[in-house]
Write a structure and sequence with these properties.
- By secondary structure, the protein is of the alpha/beta class.
- The protein has 2 domains: 86 residues, Immunoglobulin-like, CATH 2.60.40; 272 residues, Glycosidases (TIM Barrel).
- It is built from 8 helices and 27 strands.
- The strands form 8 sheets. Strands 13-14-18-19-22-25-26-27 form an 8-stranded mixed β-barrel, surrounded by 5 helices. Strands 4, 7, 8, 10, 11 and 12 form a 6-stranded mixed β-sheet that branches.
- Helix 3 links the parallel strand 13 and strand 14.
- The longest helix has 21 residues.
- The chain is elongated, with a radius of gyration of 34 Å.
């Protein structure tokens, strides 16, 4: 046999088979050994990689987010098929026709943040593969900004009537431009003010937010809101309605230390007496007033004290229904006995307002004598949420704090607590 001639025939045959396979769009995977002699019988067993045409199989979807709040970003995602795909996201701003690549946006998804993009920006992705390039459809990013007309928005959205709008303030907003506030709330609007707070334990040092001076709570766990008087005067002088609230605080039932080192033996009734004293001494509340008088029922911070050489930490909890009733009944008794009205309220979150125990609403007894100022923020984007708040045993809310992200131009501050009120919110509960 002529071995040289046989080797040539074998080489020609191998090359012919390889050419045939290649013409079908298949290429053999890398050989385990570049020097191994070709084996005809092994060709059919070699793994093959097919080049797939680049194609978008799922388009990115448009999204709506808020400039502020809990939903301030959106993730655009694309699905594609093909071989060795590469991604490049692009944007197009409103009013332009140019697509511009986004630096480092080279994955299947792109996260767009409200702080980085203007409302109406469009996004697409260009996908490149071994067999072509595909462009996705454009997805639009809608960015919602806080509203300046929450009362009108709520009436249109929920079919309500007589709704007014307001802002609630405390010493944390000391120095705020009140003309800007009173202009924003409108002629029939309102301002809710913190009268005082029991949030700090006794003998606790803190910095006065109005004067920036170091001070202490002393022997009682309460502090008068240092901005209350000035803000109340400005609101009254502008002809806007007022509301007044007391932040629940340290009282004897929540202090587990033997010497009452946190609460100092203070009671809800004593808190109510102090609230009324500061309310009447301010001068803006008269016998003709029907202002909401609110007990703010919320938990507070954890505080640490050294007692007899040992460290003790307690967290300020929200008051219970019996504690709230003790405060509210004392306020009512003291005011009505002096010829004043008592338009009693409680403030709390919607989940707390609707909490239940053994099949009964926790706040049923409180709801019998008060109206409800409820906090329900949705995504907290400075706009009226898409759903009305839960109210538990109250038939409805009287005042609704819908956000802490209201933006009022000219105030010199950022986000503010904003509210809307029903038409009868300044009418005492019968």
């Amino acid at each position: 046999m002529n071995h040289a001639r046989s080797a040539v025939r074998l080489a020609v045959a191998t090359a012919s088979i390889a050419l045939a396979v290649s013409s079908l769009g298949w290429v053999p995977a890398a050989s385990a050994s570049a020097t191994a002699a070709p084996q005809i019988g092994a060709i059919g067993a070699l793994p093959m990689v097919k080049k797939v045409k680049t194609k978008i199989t799922k388009q990115p979807k448009s999204a709506t987010i808020g400039r502020y709040g809990t939903r301030t970003s959106a993730t655009f995602t694309v699905k594609a098929k093909g071989t060795k795909l590469r991604y490049r996201w692009q944007y197009q701003l409103t009013g332009t026709t140019t697509w511009t690549s986004i630096a480092r946006a080279t994955k299947k998804s792109y996260k767009a943040k409200a702080a980085d993009w203007s409302a109406g920006a469009k996004f697409r992705v260009v996908v490149k593969g071994k067999k072509g390039t595909a462009k996705s459809k454009a997805a639009t990013l809608t960015v919602l900004y806080p509203t300046n007309t929450p009362a009108a928005d709520a009436m249109a959205q929920f079919g309500l009537t007589g709704i007014t709008q307001g802002i609630d303030l405390s010493a944390w907003q000391y120095g705020i431009s009140m003309p800007s506030i009173t202009s924003w709330v409108g002629g029939d609007g309102f301002v809710m003010l913190r009268n005082g707070s029991g949030s700090r334990p006794i003998n606790t040092s803190f910095v006065n937010p109005c004067t920036k001076a170091n001070t202490t709570t002393g022997s009682t766990p309460i502090t008068k809101d240092c901005a209350y008087a000035g803000l109340a005067d400005a609101t009254t002088n502008a002809g806007r309605r007022l509301g007044h609230y007391w932040f629940n605080g340290w009282i004897a039932p929540m202090d587990s230390t033997p010497a009452q080192s946190f609460a100092g033996g203070y009671t809800p009734e004593q808190s109510a007496t102090q609230f009324v004293t500061w309310l009447l001494s301010d001068g803006n509340y008269t016998t003709a007033s029907t202002d909401p008088l609110v007990l703010d029922i919320e938990s507070g911070s954890a505080w640490t004290k050294t007692i007899d050489g040992k460290t003790k930490t307690l967290k300020l909890r929200a008051w219970t229904s019996p504690e709230a009733l003790a405060f509210l009944n004392t306020v009512r008794q003291q005011l009505t006995s002096q010829g004043y009205h008592a338009n009693l309220y409680v403030y709390m979150g919607a989940n707390n307002a609707s909490s239940m125990s053994n099949g009964t609403y926790v706040w049923t007894d409180v709801a019998a004598i008060t109206r409800l100022w409820v906090a329900s923020w949705g995504t907290d984007n400075g706009r009226i949420p898409t759903a009305l708040p839960k109210t538990g045993p109250w038939p409805t809310w009287s005042i609704w704090q819908y956000t802490d992200n209201a933006r009022v131009a000219g105030t010199g501050v950022g986000g503010l607590d904003a509210d809307i009120a029903q038409a009868d919110a300044w009418t005492p509960k019968s």
